[in-house]
Amino acid sequence: MTDLDSIATRNARVEADKAWETCWMRKLFIAGITYLIVSLYLPLLGVEKSYLHALVPVCGYLLSTLSLPLVKTWWLENQYKKESKH
């Protein structure tokens, strides 16, 4: 394998990792697992309607993933430009 092949293989792996990190399937999977774990844990604490209360962390997680692109854009425009000027 040549150095060029190694770089191409690495780039493909990095692109796949980035695609996974930003895809909705990953976010929904994490939300589903979170809901399952919390909905199983809350009844142990005696929480009534635990299936509804388990939605709170899931909604918080999903809302945070929706806001991250906006925060990233703001940060890149403000903070990153300041650091690159130094």
Keywords:
86 residues, mainly alpha
Provide mean pLDDT, rounded: 90
In total, how many beta strands?
Answer: 0
Q: How many domain modules?
A: 1
Question: What overall form do the CA principal axes indicate?
Answer: flat
Query: What share of residues is helical?
Result: over 70%
> End-to-end span in angstroms?
40 Å
- C-alpha-based Rg, rounded: 20 Å
Which residues sit in consecutive blocks of at least 5 with pLDDT less than 50? Answer: none
How many strands, which pairing sense, and closed or not: the largest β-sheet?
none
Beta fraction of the residues? under 5%
Structural class call reads mainly alpha
Number of helices: 4
Q: Helices and strands, in N-to-C order? A: HHHH
Q: How would you explain this protein's 3D organization?
A:
The chain has one domain. It is an all-alpha fold. The model has no long low-confidence stretch (mean pLDDT 90). The protein contains four helices and no strands. It is flat, with a radius of gyration of 20 Å. 85% of the residues lie in helices and 0% in strands.
List the helices and strands and how they pair.
Elements: H1 3-22, H2 24-41, H3 50-53, H4 55-85
